[in-house]
Design goal:
Blueprint lengths: L9 H11 L2 H16 L17 E8 L4 H4 L4 H5 L7 H4 L23 E4 L4 E4 L3 H5 L4 E8 L5 H10 L9 H9 L9 E7 L26 E3 L17 H22 L2 H24 L6 H7 L9 H13 L4 E7 L10 H22 L6 E6 L3 E2 L17 E2 L3 E7 L6 E3 L1 E2 L6 E3 L2 E2 H11 L9 E3 L2 E3 L15
Parallel strand pairs: 1-7, 1-8, 4-12, 4-15, 5-6, 5-7
Antiparallel strand pairs: 2-3, 4-11, 8-11, 9-10, 13-14, 16-17
Helix pairs in contact: 9-10, 12-13
Length: about 475
């Protein structure tokens, strides 16, 4: 330490004080780490707020917004009004994307494929989704979702983090923070992305879609790459032996522990634990990514793309393998649903690439006895307009714009009531007609399925207790079996 205290910097003073304080310094460090582990007033410390129906969650997130009126929300009136102007009473005072221009006088567009009732529950599902139609009796279909945002990134951020502005912790981060990890060989929160080949309307995958925000960084989602080597920088360089790597990590950990003792930054403890997890993942991830142990019957279940790294089918199978090995939350994101001028072309591709794998995931989980306590969610950030975008006389350019006022999401497993059709949109699929479910309500319901009270799981940041649902949200208890 400097002999002249007048010349000390603030950092030197604090560092010196901690070195000289002995037991007092260790007690302060212990307090910092305890605060980090319990951060906030509402984290869970071993006991859930309520009985948990789901132990884990898989979110099949369709970036770009699937068109509810073409897939899940059957509206005969829309077919009757095909080519007629949208009634002013349905759009008065509403905000739409600027890509629509003025919406007054826009023409109504009928569904591009027929709907049929499916299963014993009689749910309407389009011919675009034949595999999903097979499992109608396993699904809880919510047709009254609504949101506040009209553009993709803000709406996705709102759905996943509870705020349109990036920077808040995402759903997976909150579940990791609230429930912890079941295993230490794999992350509690994993994100995977895919996009259909040849699509012209893929959305950007921003890192904040799986971010931890202001939560400790160990709760951030680990992004798996679209390759046979899914985690970047995990492999040892050529010539590096396992025992050398172990010795290197031990030396780095010792240096980090010394720094932790000097400055007391909880993120250093996170760094130590993440180095250790990375070391264990060097053995667990190659085993996870090797599908050789999967029988042909399972591979066939997911469809022909399952062996293609980066495909939605492959990611769905990987999601099952991850939750089977203890991962708490898997976010499987698929881009390309932004059909402003490709409803009659690329929508078919999107449905073909995602329909069978989504069905296969639910069936696979069911066969293994995992569906009962695994919540599967399918949906996007909003829906698509019942009126057309572009020229109705040119079918190849038909499209639909962003639509936040009513859309569809389905849930399966995790204590959710199967065969339930919840909520309704109006006769044109334009607005919610009954039992509306806001994105904050869905978030609250997901947390409730996992045994968490969304009002009690909080984290103190900048003087305020934050939560996933902000200051909103109510649990939709009718969805539970």
């Amino acid at each position: 330490m400097p002999c002249n205290p007048v010349g000390w910097t603030r950092r030197e003073l604090l560092t010196g004080a901690m070195h000289g304080a002995g037991t007092l310094g260790l007690a302060a460090l212990s307090g910092l780490l305890t605060r980090d582990s319990r951060a906030g007033t509402g984290t869970l410390t071993g006991a859930l707020h309520q009985p948990a129906r789901a132990k884990r969650v898989i979110y099949l997130f369709m970036n770009g917004a699937p068109t509810h009126v073409d897939i899940f929300d059957h509206k005969p009136k829309l077919t009757e009004m095909h080519g007629q102007p949208v009634p002013e009473s349905f759009i008065a005072g509403k905000r739409f994307s600027t890509m629509s221009g003025g919406v007054t006088g826009k023409l109504m567009l009928a569904p591009i494929q027929p709907f049929h009732r499916r299963g014993q529950c009689g749910a309407w599902v389009s011919d675009l989704m034949p595999y999903t139609a097979r499992m109608a009796d396993d699904l809880c279909i919510i047709r009254s979702m609504h949101t506040d945002a009209v553009n993709h990134a803000p709406a996705i951020s709102l759905m996943l983090s509870g705020a349109q502005i990036p920077g808040r912790p995402t759903l997976g981060g909150w579940l990791s923070y609230g429930l912890g990890s079941e295993r230490d060989e794999l992350p509690a929160f994993v994100a995977m992305t895919s996009v259909s080949k040849g699509t012209t309307c893929g959305q950007i995958f921003y890192d904040f879609y799986w971010g931890a925000g202001f939560l400790p960084s160990r709760h951030q989602g680990v992004k798996f790459r679209n390759s046979s080597d899914p985690v970047l920088y995990l492999s040892d360089p050529p010539g590096m032996r396992r025992e050398w790597r172990r010795g290197q990590l031990d030396a780095i950990a010792e240096l980090n522990r010394q720094k932790l003792g000097a400055v007391g930054d909880p993120e250093i403890a996170t760094r130590i634990s993440q180095y250790e997890m990375a070391y264990r993942m060097q053995a667990s991830v190659p085993e996870l990514a090797d599908l050789a142990s999967e029988p042909k019957s399972v591979l066939d279940l997911y469809g022909p793309q399952v062996l293609e790294p980066g495909s939605f089918a492959r990611n769905c199978l990987m999601a099952r393998r991850l939750i089977e090995r203890g991962t708490r939350y898997v976010q499987v994101m698929h881009a390309g649903w932004d059909q402003h001028n490709s409803i009659t072309t690329e929508l078919y591709t999107q449905c073909r690439d995602t329909d069978q794998p989504s069905w296969a995931l639910v069936q696979d989980l069911k066969q293994r006895g995992l569906l009962d306590d695994t919540l599967v969610i399918w949906g996007g950030e909003f829906g698509r307009t019942p009126f057309i975008q572009n020229d109705i006389a040119n079918r190849k350019t038909w499209g639909r714009d962003h639509h936040p006022y009513a859309y569809t999401t389905w849930l399966a497993g995790g204590g959710i009531k199967p065969g339930l059709q919840y909520g309704e949109s109006d006769e044109l699929g334009m607005n919610v007609a009954s039992n509306g479910v806001h994105v904050h309500d869905l978030q609250a319901t997901i947390l409730a399925a996992c045994g968490i009270d969304h009002e009690k799981l909080t984290y103190r940041f900048q003087g305020r207790d934050f939560r996933l649902t902000d200051v909103h949200g109510k649990v939709v208890r009718e969805l539970f079996a």
